[in-house]
C-alpha cells in the first residue's frame, strides 16, 4: 500500500500467558476480554484460535485479515488480497461486529484514514444493524474516543462522521452531530448546506492537523441550540457551543487539552473573524483570553477554513506586542485595578503599532 510501517502486531497461536511472560518478563497487559500485551511498543495477542486461519476469521475487515509468519509467508483471508487491490472495506463476518461493536467506529476510522477505499454497502448495513440493536451505546467511552482521535489524523477526517451517520452510529455517542444534520448551517447566500455538511467541509479543509480538525468539528455546534423559528440565523451560537463541546469531550473521555481547544473554537471563531474591526481593548481581551500562541494560530487556521478570512499575521503580531507590555512596579499589587491598567497599556500599544 506504499504506507510506512506504524507498528507491529503479533498473534500468538497455541501459547500461554506464562510462556509469553517467561520470554518477555516486562510485557505489559492491556487487554481485558482478550489477552493483549505490549512488548517494546509492539502488540502481542494470545489468540484462542487453534490456527492462524481460524484467527483471521475473527477480524473486522477483510483487508485486516492478513498475517505474515516468521518466514515471510503471507496468510490471508480468501477475500483479503482481492479487496486490498479493489480498495474496498468489507466485513469478514457480520457477527464479528456484534461480538465487538467498537468495530463500527473502527470501520469509520479506516474510511477516514484510507479515503481512496470505498465502503461496501454491506458493511454499512452491518453497522446499521449493530447500532439499531443498541450495542454501541454500551462501549467504554475511551474506545469510541480513541477511534475518533485516530480519525482526526486521517487524510479525509470528515469521512468518520459521514460513515458513522450512514451506519446509524452517531446516535448516543455523537448525538450533537446527528442533530446537526437537521439544522441549516446558516442563511443564504452564506450557506446552502446543513450544519453537519458544513462541519465536515471545514474538517477536511483542516486535514493534516488533528487538533485543528477537532476544532473544525466543534466550532459551530452551538447552532443546534437555535430555536427553529429563528433559523437559519444563529445569533449567539459561539457562546452556546462552549458547554456542548465540553459535554461531548467529557462523554468521550477526550484529553483535556483537546476539549479546551474545541471550546475555544466555539467561543472565539466569530470574534476572531471580525478582528480587523474590533476595538483595541476588545482585541486585548481576545488575545489574553486565548492565552496560548499555538492555540491562537490554530484558531486563525480555523477562521480561514470556515470563511476564508486570514488575519493570522496581524493577530500573531498583536499577540507578540501585548506580551511585551508589562505592568510597572507602581501599579502592581492593586487587585483588579492592576489588571485594568495592564489592559489599558496593552490597548495603547496596539494603537501605537497599528
UniProtKB/TrEMBL annotation:
Coiled-coil spans in chain: none
GO MF: ATP binding; metal ion binding; nucleotidyltransferase activity; RNA binding
Start and end residues of each tRNA nucleotidyltransferase/poly(A) polymerase RNA and SrmB- binding domain: 116-179
Record-level GO BP terms: RNA repair; tRNA processing
Keywords: ATP-binding, Magnesium, Metal-binding, Nucleotide-binding, Nucleotidyltransferase, RNA repair, RNA-binding, Transferase, tRNA processing
All residue ranges annotated as the HD domain in the record: 208-257
Needed co-factor(s): Mg(2+)
Pfam families, per the entry: HD, PolyA_pol, PolyA_pol_RNAbd
Keyword Transferase among UniProt keywords: yes
UniProt domain Poly A polymerase head: residue ranges: 45-76
The family this protein is said to belong to: Belongs to the tRNA nucleotidyltransferase/poly(A) polymerase family.
Protein name in UniProt: tRNA nucleotidyltransferase
Gene source species: Desulfoplanes formicivorans
Amino acid at each position: 500500500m506504499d504506507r510506512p510501517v506504524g507498528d507491529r502486531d503479533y498473534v500468538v497461536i497455541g501459547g500461554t500467558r506464562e510462556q509469553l511472560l517467561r520470554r518477555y518478563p516486562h510485557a505489559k497487559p492491556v487487554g481485558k476480554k482478550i489477552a493483549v500485551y505490549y512488548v517494546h511498543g509492539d502488540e502481542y495477542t494470545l489468540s484462542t484460535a487453534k490456527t492462524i486461519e481460524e484467527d483471521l476469521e475473527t477480524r473486522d475487515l477483510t483487508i485486516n485479515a492478513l498475517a505474515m509468519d516468521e518466514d515471510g509467508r503471507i496468510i490471508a483471508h480468501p477475500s483479503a488480497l482481492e479487496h486490498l487491490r479493489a480498495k474496498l472495506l468489507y466485513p469478514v463476518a457480520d457477527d464479528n461486529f456484534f461480538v465487538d461493536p467498537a468495530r463500527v467506529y473502527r470501520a469509520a476510522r479506516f474510511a477516514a484514514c484510507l479515503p481512496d477505499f470505498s465502503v461496501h454497502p454491506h458493511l454499512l448495513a452491518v453497522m446499521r444493524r449493530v447500532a439499531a440493536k443498541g450495542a454501541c451505546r454500551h462501549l467504554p467511552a475511551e474506545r469510541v474516543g480513541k477511534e475518533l482521535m485516530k480519525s482526526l489524523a486521517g487524510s479525509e477526517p470528515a469521512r468518520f462522521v459521514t460513515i458513522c451517520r450512514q451506519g446509524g452510529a452517531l446516535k448516543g455517542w455523537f448525538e450533537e452531530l446527528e442533530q446537526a444534520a437537521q439544522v441549516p448551517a446558516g442563511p443564504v447566500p452564506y450557506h446552502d448546506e446543513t450544519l453537519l455538511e458544513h462541519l465536515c467541509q471545514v474538517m477536511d479543509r483542516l486535514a493534516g492537523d488533528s487538533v485543528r480538525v477537532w476544532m473544525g468539528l466543534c466550532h459551530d455546534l452551538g447552532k443546534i441550540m437555535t430555536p427553529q423559528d429563528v433559523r437559519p440565523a444563529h445569533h449567539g451560537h459561539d457562546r452556546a457551543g462552549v458547554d456542548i463541546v465540553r459535554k461531548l469531550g467529557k462523554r468521550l473521555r477526550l484529553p483535556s487539552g483537546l476539549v479546551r481547544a474545541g471550546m475555544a473554537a466555539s467561543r472565539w471563531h466569530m470574534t476572531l473573524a471580525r478582528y480587523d474591526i474590533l476595538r483595541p481593548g476588545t482585541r486585548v481581551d481576545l488575545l489574553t483570553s486565548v492565552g496560548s500562541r499555538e492555540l491562537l494560530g490554530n484558531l486563525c487556521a480555523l477562521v480561514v477554513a470556515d470563511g476564508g478570512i486570514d488575519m493570522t499575521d496581524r493577530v500573531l503580531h498583536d499577540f507578540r506586542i501585548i506580551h511585551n507590555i508589562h505592568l510597572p512596579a507602581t501599579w502592581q499589587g492593586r487587585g483588579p485595578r492592576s489588571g485594568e491598567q495592564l489592559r489599558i497599556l496593552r490597548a495603547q500599544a496596539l494603537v501605537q503599532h497599528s
